[in-house]
Design goal:
The protein has about 100 residues and is α+β, with helices and mostly antiparallel strands. Helices cover about 50% and strands about 15% of the residues. It folds into two domains: about 40 residues, no CATH class; about 55 residues, no CATH class. The protein contains two helices and three strands. The relative contact order is 0.12.
């Protein structure tokens, strides 16, 4: 998460996830509304493309481009499985 976008937790929302770089990365509001900062739709190819297109910005911000690519290769399979589970659950809520 290098974009630096942050937000305050909406009133009545339940905090679900934080990271060392994002105090509120996910929340639930009511029974069916979720807010997520991580992009669960991302694939390794999409990350590669984003890094290539943002390389100067990342370097200027002190972000280790090689670390992003290494982390992506390490975590892509479990992240894609998590995304499949999440999207199936979301589709199930729609009926």
């Amino acid at each position: 998460m290098w974009h630096g976008d942050h937000f305050a937790l909406p009133k009545g929302a339940v905090h679900l996830l934080s990271t060392d770089k994002c105090a509120c990365a996910a929340f639930r509001h009511g029974k069916k509304a979720y807010g997520l900062v991580p992009h669960l739709e991302m694939t390794a190819a999409m990350v590669d493309e984003m890094v290539a297109g943002s390389r100067k910005e990342l370097v200027a911000a002190g972000v280790e481009v090689a670390q992003i690519l290494e982390d992506t290769s390490e975590h892509v399979e479990p992240a894609e499985e998590l995304a499949r589970v999440m999207w199936r659950g979301w589709a199930g809520l729609l009926g």
